[in-house]
Amino acid sequence: MQADDFGFGTQIRKSPYFDATVRWGAQGYSVYNHMYIPRDFGDPEQNFWNLVNDAILCDVAVERQVEITGPDAAKFTQLLTCRDLSKMAVGQCKYILITNADGGILNDPILLRLAENHFWISLADSDILLWAQGVAVNSGLDVTISEPDVSPLQLQGPKSGLIMQELFGESIWDLKYYWLREVELDGIPLIISRTGWSSELGYELYLRDGTCGDALWERIMAAGMAHGLKPGHTSTIRRIEGGMLSYHADADAETNPYELGFDRLVNLDMDADFIGKAALRRIQKEGVSRKQIGLILEGDPLNGPNTSFWRIKKDGEVIGKVTSAVYSPRLKQNIALAIVDVAHANLGATVQVVNRSGVVNEEGAVDAIIVDRPFYDPKKSIAAA
Q1: Same domain as 48, residue 154
Q2: Which residue of 74, 323, 354, 359 is 20 to 30 Å from 84, comparing CA positions?
Q3: What share of the chain in percent tops pLDDT 70?
Q4: For the chain, how long is the longest CA-to-CA vector?
């Protein structure tokens, strides 16, 4: 297959790694942040096992960066998020929520602090560049908001550390979980961080020169061959096992942090103001009407993830929806993230999931058990090791 065989049009951007991913066997793409993202390197179950047993290299250049610089960069960045950034050090990364005036989640990115007044917001799938530029217009703060020439790769899996050692030397083992470092590799400028969307040991390599994408991809693959490195794509199986959100599926602008159990990411007591603070204070006081849960679905293994929201019923009444579902070959269970009316969010309760097989009538209903999530390694000990 040739790179030109993929044709959504010129309005969909290609990453610096696009030709390399085609060359290394990518068979299908979807669109994320107005860019192509590889979604198919063959059997998704094999991709999962490659990830959890060895390592995979993923083109995630779709994680666009919103760069915030200027004298008021720190103050402005705090305005965007409900998480307290007052103790965030230069060189640190944080998982944050960007909220609107109603307390709804607009994005759940990783924030990187490169310098005292230099931040990157590494995005999930929504247009936060436009949001941040709009907020800046009326903020009265001295900031510059832009999208830099930065394109991340994810190197994830238990052998990713050994591959990084091949590339950068033994000092890489000193890089702590959710911290970053500025480096060069064969003259290629990079930021590397101990982060990733896999719940496994992993690193992200932020390329700072798009002309070097092909060279960087090939250099990493060459270093990883002896360690079983395979080209891959972000694993739906592993991210659902880890309870990781996919924006637009498990969260959107109508979802607030408390519904997802993200109380720890909301600090209403800090002196700094942020967009949505009043709304989130009200929601905290009044409580939520729905809550995210985990589900174990009965029945035959699912043939791939859900492509629509499946209704959840209790005693014939619709009480919520399945947002992400997949079969886990490791757990040998159908697992799902869902959101339900809070009165029905009871661990151990049985509910019915309608249309889990994609049928159009009630005959598709199966029983499901409400469980806690994450489904695997709930303390994130693998990723944080």
Answers
A1: yes
A2: 323
A3: 96
A4: 63
Q: Same structural domain for residues 229 and 344?
A: no
Residue 170: both structure tokens together? 């033994």
The two structure tokens encoding residue 325: 């579902």
Residues in the chain: 385
Q: Are strands 144-146 and 188-193 parallel, antiparallel or unpaired?
A: unpaired
| 230 located within any domain | yes
* Number of domains comprising the chain: 3
Strands 290-297, 366-371: pairing is antiparallel
- Determine phi and psi for 328, rounding to 5 degrees: -100, 115
pLDDT for 84 beyond 50: yes
Q: Is residue 30 located within the same domain as residue 134?
A: no
Strand partners, 351: 368
Q: What is the pLDDT of residues 257-295, one digit of tens each?
A: 999 999 999 999 999 999 999 999 999 999 999 999 999
**Judgement on whether residues 346 and 215 belong to the same structural domain of the protein:** no
Q: Is the pLDDT of residue 103 over 60?
A: yes
Do residues 366 and 302 lie in contact, with contact meaning Cβ atoms separated by under 8 Å?
no
Integer CA distances (angstroms), 35 to 10, 16, 96, 167, in order: 10, 11, 23, 28
What is the SS3 assignment for 336? Answer: strand
On whether the pTM is more than 0.85, the answer is yes
What is the tally of helices (H) and strands (E) in the chain? 9, 21
Q: What is the pLDDT of residues 286-314, one digit of tens each?
A: 999 999 999 999 999 999 999 999 999 99
